[in-house]
Amino acid sequence: MSAGPDVYHEITQFLYREAELLDSGRFDEWLDLLTDDITYHMPVRINRERGDYPDASEAMEHFSEDRVTLRLRVERLKTDFAWAEDPPSRTRRFVSNVRVSPGPDGATDVRSYLLIYRNRGDTPAVEILSAERRDVLVRVGRVWKIRRRTIIVDQASLGAKNLAIFF
């Protein structure tokens, strides 16, 4: 069962706004889009025989974070010690294939595809990261917030030099 057109529109606009905040480096505002009990993680993608599942590890992750660690990452980006992001990455996030369905306990399950274009410094080299995001969104008052985000990258071996950006 999918959500109605009004909810679908609200959520796609929410995801586009989130992408805009991240691409423009407005990380404190982005944190406001997260619930206090957020879980934010990226399991390692694994290669399996056709039909064998899951295709992402349940035991290994590139990162597993909560609100405290995400806040620490944002605060670190404001210091001279964020070497992986100095100079800061120029990113452009493309969100597509948004699917919205009712979840348990009044939450909303949202799946979307994400393509991130990333460039740093004066080099012409770019990184392109592709992933599916599996989100659980909840309405807090009149606004949507992310309670859970699982990022399933499409590469089993990441070509990115670091994962210092947010997905």
- How many extended strands? 6
Q: What spatial form do the alpha-carbon principal axes imply?
A: globular
Averaged pLDDT: 90
The helix content, as a percent range, equals 10-25%
Order of strands in the sheet with the most strands? 2-1-6-5-4-3
Series of secondary-structure elements, N-terminal to C-terminal? HHEEHEEEE
Report, as a whole number of angstroms, the end-to-end distance: 26 Å
Largest sheet: 6 strands, mixed
What is the structural class? Answer: alpha+beta
Oligomer category: single chain
Q: What are the low-pLDDT stretches, counting only 5+ consecutive residues below 50?
A: none
Number of helical segments with 4 or more residues: 3
How many whole angstroms does the radius of gyration measure? 16 Å
Strand content range: 35-45%
Describe the structure.
- Strand 3 (90-102) and strand 4 (108-119) form a beta hairpin.
- A six-stranded mixed beta sheet has the order 2-1-6-5-4-3.
- It is globular and about 45 Å long.
- The mean pLDDT is 90.
- The chain is an alpha+beta fold and 167 residues long.
- The protein is built from three helices and six strands, in the order ααββαββββ.
- It has helices at 5-23, 27-31, 67-77, and strands spanning 34-45, 56-65, 90-102, 108-119, 126-140, 143-153.
